[in-house]
Write a structure and sequence with these properties.
With 234 residues, the chain is an alpha/beta fold. Helices cover 41% and strands 19% of the residues. The chain is built from nine helices and seven strands. A seven-stranded mixed β-sheet has the order 3-2-1-4-5-7-6, sandwiched between helices. It is globular.
Length: 234
Amino acid sequence: MLGFTERKRTLVDFKELSAYAAAFTSSENELLRQMEQKAADIYIPIMQPSAMAFLQQIIRWTGARKILELGTAIGYSSIRMALAAGKEAKIITVERDQAMIEEAANNIKMLNLQSVIHIVEGDATEDLQEVQDSAPYDLILIDAAKAQYEHLFQKCTDVLAEKGIIVTDNVFFHGLVCNIEGVKKKQLNRLVKKVDEYNHFLAEQKDFDTIFLTVGDGMAVSTKKEYTACGGNC
């Protein structure tokens, strides 16, 4: 057994470990690899490959077929979710940026996934009829405006299936949630605090069990609690 000194020496930087894990994941096709490279080059906010691979596993494990995504960007996550869920799946993805919508639609078309993925133009914080019409959802991915995470989660509970799952990306926000006082820029500090408050909010939800995972930039997986005839207090 390693002693304290030896254990301390074996500690590895989180980013280094994440990069090591990401090296074992691979995208399904060349277009996805190009999307990953473009996102890295000009900082388009897409899910990190290791987090995306885990999300695909959740979809395979649960057999999720009706999926809602809040935050399309260039269509990377919706495409990879579609590949995991299969041709019979239905993915509704919400985006308000017109340039992003056009690029996502083109990427989706290039992989012939138009029958699986439907982009809804609009603000995810608002009541969108197309989102309501396709409810309930087996899985919901929250990957939109971080300052609105709590509001988005509350809206998601209304359209989630009985045994549905809500996945939230970026809940560690580049590790800044562990050192909020060290973030000196006021606007960034407020945003980090919002993410930290959201994490505490998730942990306090009586109707959900949430686990926080150190994959990608941090992922929270929230599942509805199953209540028995005695109200879950047996």
